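Risk register update: the risk of archive-format incompatibility is retired. Evidence:
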Amino acid sequence: MNLAEQPDPQLTPTSLNADIQTAQSVRPTLLCLSHLRWGFVYQRPQHVMSRLAKDYDVLFFEEPLRGGCDDPWLEQTRPAEGVTVLVPHLPEGLDFMQSVDAQRHLLDTYLAMHEPSQLLLWYFTPMSLDFTAHLEGQVTIFDCMDELSAFKGAPKELVEKEQQLMRRADVVFTGGYSLWETKSKLHANAHAVPSSVDLNHFAAARQPLLQPLDQAAIAHPRLGFFGVIDERFDIALVSELARRRPEWQIVLIGPVVKIDPAALPRHPNIHYLGGKDYSQLPAYLAGWDVALMPFALNESTRYISPTKTPEYLAGGCPVVSSPIVDVIRVYGDARVVEIAASVDEFIAAIEGILDGDHDAAAFTQRVDAVLEGMSWDKTCAVMKEQIECLR
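Archived output:
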């Protein structure tokens, strides 16, 4: 070996290994662009980001709040270890481009001040491309939870933005199998990653729990629902259930969004308890005789895979659901969820459960078999593995 061919004496196996370990020890910054607020309803974004924060510094960038300020500014909070929520505050009266420019400036300024060594981009909404298209992420992820273009009030340009994001994304996750069947035709690296469940959290509802004050005085039988009450909620079905079975008490928990509260049925046996903290849900669930998933069958529910399905089941509560494709595929065919396509079928299914046709022991065995191995930790591990393969 001549002198020119001799290896650099500093590049020993020990030093090379040290360099690799140093690089791996640097926590990447994961910039999450979300249309859902961290403090809204604790669901997929919070479950996923709070777990990924063990390995990445998570920046959770929300949609802007308008008004109450003369100049744009960025609110920063730390709701969980490793998670920083960033909320842009914008003055009233800004037009579309001014709003985009303000968000881009606020985000760029924050990133410049914190100088992330590695930047990963995670999109829950394609609309965030308006102010992030200039950013170069080491990996770009599109977590397509729902078919957002089918939701009420969706921007008309959302479909085009999603096409752009599909071209930029290195990996696409979908919130259910039906959605994956559609998106996998548009992206070669799409993976079905249905929302999971915190089994221990909801399993507490299998035992008697102290009833919350606003539910304790409600008579039985109790039929319950928790989640967002929006255009996916079948108002007519719930109203007819309440009218035809006035002895059944229907408990509805969750915020009302994108529909006029005045349009909601107001029968004496329907109880709107408002939004509740995630930590409180098992106590409410423990007091129900039947859990409901009364979804309307429309474009907004065509591809949904409701997170509440395994949550209800983990709590040991019998479930009656509208015929949602992913619910039938995973839970209906396994005989752990009763599927009802009409008011008459809902009534028949609920009556069957209340009248004792429901074999509790056999039901629990089937539920445990379906839920076995499900956890948000495993779901996030699958996502992280895909990301790390691309880094």
